[in-house]
Known about the structure:
The chain is an alpha+beta fold. It has helices spanning 3-8, 15-21, 24-30, 52-56, 61-70, 90-98, 140-148, 154-173, 183-200, 207-219, 229-251, 260-266, 275-288, 291-306, 308-316, 321-332, 363-366, 402-419; strands at residues 73-79, 82-87, 103-104, 181-182, 337-342, 346-348, 351-353, 358-362, 420-425, 430-431, 440-442, 444-449.
Amino acid sequence: MSDSATEVWSESATIQERFALKNEDVLSQYTIDPYRRDVDDIPIDELDPTHPSLFEADTMWPYFERLRNEDPVHKVRDTMFGTYWCVTKYQDIVEMERNVDVFSSEQRYGGIQIGGQPYDTDAPDAQFNLPMFIMMDPPKHTEQRSVVQPMFLQRPLQSLKPMIGDRVCAILDSLPIDEEFDWVSNVSIELTAQMLATLLDVPQEDRMKLIHWSDTVQNASNPVVFDSIEEAFRELWTCHAYFSEIWEERKREKKPENNLISMLAHGEATRDMKPNELLGNLLLLIVAGNDTTRNSISGGVQFFDRYPSEREKLAENPDLVANAISEIIRFQSPVAHMARTALSDYELNGKSIKAGDRLAMWYISGNRDDEAIPDANSFQIDRDSARNHLGFGFGIHRCLGYRLAEMQLQILWEEIGKRFERIEVVGEPKYGFTNFLHAVRELPVRLHVH
């Protein structure tokens, strides 16, 4: 790291600041040239779509298209993430999601990200072991998920609608007109941060701490951001320190209040969690409450700018907004993949999967599968069956807060339509150096009013 970077480095630096401070020498060690050769020239056996640089450059699409067409269950060997199967077709992903007895999410086998390390969840050394219910199989997954599920049912969500509307209006009304600004930090992050603080019932002035911890989770193994996994986890444990007093206060309540921490503190399956499991589930809720909505908000702005006919279609028929939200989530695919581990031998689309094999289900590819979604590479807000996408996953692990994400997006686009003729993208977006999320880090825009 350069001397100038060292001078301003601090533990409180945001992820965005860390990206900026890392010098080119550090970056060059961990990136590839995402444009270095034509995808069609790569032998199929060597085709690997998963290097984070491809996602940072948004050049992974032809890799997935070729795999869907030529080798939809594709074994990738000896990569930076190890050896694993790339599953790229919609129906194959659905088949895996349905077979939870065969394809495990358990952390002790490697968890839900390719390259994930297996951890014994009962081991005494829990420093880098953060159990969370998304990395559990039934019955424990079901027991813990059901504790917080009532928060995301239709009736309690409807009570949040007026507050979401007020916040959306306040954010949009504060934006500069006919002046360039970053949509991600001013709108996408701000709206989701406010909602996270509400769901957890913590002070709004602390909302950006939640965003920082969410970004830290996603970048914990990213050498462009952190020099070591130990450095990342030191920051993650500050999250536990922040919530430990709140946790004890909520446990002393006579009955749980209507917030996620109170529900966890009183839930039979969660009230006696060890510190690392409490931290794991808190981070899960923070990340899940942030990334899907945040990146879909940013993606929607890009798509309506790129497809002006769809923007005009929505302006002429605002009743299409709910359908448009589903299409935005499909087209963005904010969670790029989830990984599983085979617990027994299984044949998937003609390939012999062996017990112990790791597999990556590429939602971002399945959502562009023409066999399941006609003309999948086009953005169509009046698409039939638009809700039949993999943007929220599928099966027992489907995103717990999908209704809340849809509600926030719908209210946002309803209010955008009332105020602005166009949100013009005036520069190249910057994407995250990650293959787990399809993440938009920066999006320069200019607003045009009616």
